[in-house]
Write a structure and sequence with these properties.
Cytochrome Bc1 Complex, Chain D, domain 2; 0% strand
């Protein structure tokens, strides 16, 4: 069996992965500070203050990251959110998502 080309590709992939910049570790405390601009519509604790603003508290970080990047990159459009997300770096988005995901939401049945 010949493994030469497959091993060469695997080696190249591992080298590329090892030389890639380290991923940003999301920081909820930093996200809380960055979320000040979000409070106008989404509330201080991530509970929508405006009637058309969704609750962000307790949402999965992965979901929040995907939505903020979609607004920033133009894949998802909203007059306000597209402007708010445009200047955010991936690290900013990760931190914001970590903050809102860290807020515990409790439900009470009627």
């Amino acid at each position: 069996m010949r493994h030469g080309p497959a091993l060469a590709l695997l080696g190249a992939a591992l080298t590329a992965a090892a030389s890639a910049p380290a991923a940003h570790a999301a920081d909820a405390a930093a996200g809380q500070k960055k979320a000040q601009a979000c409070t106008v519509c989404h509330g201080a604790q991530g509970l929508g203050a405006a009637p058309d603003a969704p609750h962000l508290a307790g949402q999965p970080a992965q979901y929040l990251v995907a939505q903020l990047r979609a607004y920033r990159d133009g894949a998802r459009k909203h007059e306000v959110m597209s402007l708010m997300a445009k200047p955010l770096s991936n690290a900013d988005i990760d931190d914001l998502a970590a903050w809102f995901a860290s807020i515990e939401v409790q439900l009470k049945a009627p």
